[in-house]
Amino acid sequence: MTKDALRKLYLQKRQALTEADYAQLNFQLYQNFFFNVDLSFINVLHTFLPLQKNKEPDTWIIVDRIRREFPHVRLVVPRIEASSGTLENIFFEGLHQIEKNKWDIPEPKQGVPAASEKIDMVLVPLLACDERGQRVGYGKGFYDKFLATCRPDCKTVGISFFEPVERIDDVNALDVPLQHCLTPTAFHTFA
Q1: For residue 177, what are the contacts with CB-CB under 8 A and spacing of at least 6?
Q2: Strands 74-81 and 86-91
Q3: What is the pTM of this model?
Q4: What is the mean pLDDT of each run of 10 residues along the chain (191 residues)?
Q5: How far is it, in rounded angstroms, from Cα 61 to Cα 80?
Q6: Which domain holds residue 145?
Q7: Number of domains the chain is built from
Q8: In the 3-class helix/strand/coil scheme, how is 98-140 assigned residue by residue?
Q9: Which CATH number belongs to the domain containing residue 110 in this structure?
Q10: How far apart are CA 114 and CA 56, in angstroms?
Q11: CB 76 within 8 A of CB 106
């Protein structure tokens, strides 16, 4: 399938989730994350903050536990730089620095910037991914541009409610594949 077809299909699938299903899938993602992801060697972790109107996976529950139980991990959250089409990474200090932008995406209104080369792991938003680690987002390319600036050993973990599809047909040279994808029931590793 093409990215556009997958984008439409998976936005519909997310919107069709009941509140109970959404809560259950988020809890399973949370459990599966802490079961499969070793944070011992992670010093700086970048995570997206969920766009709740699109029923994105709730990373807030992961953020909360990391802050409580893994004090050595510094969290970084993105801020969209619309004029350049890029993400700025800001160290997360607390809820007081977060506000919704014009697209309703929660992001830091201020804070200390974090250099991409300092980031050890990125939790990547996606609508769908395939069995090769290629992903479909909202189509603006923010994460592909950002991931291209990260160190080669930076771990990338896509987070999805749904299992990977067989193949995304219209992948291009600017698409940066994931190393892993976390779903409620699996932790996929791509070659």
Answers
A1: 132, 133, 134, 135, 190
A2: antiparallel
A3: 0.95
A4: 96 97 98 97 97 94 97 97 90 95 91 97 97 92 94 97 96 93 97 75
A5: 22
A6: 3-189
A7: 1
A8: EEECCCCCEEECCCCECCHHHCCEEEEECCEEECCCCEECCCC
A9: 3.40.50.10420
A10: 24
A11: no
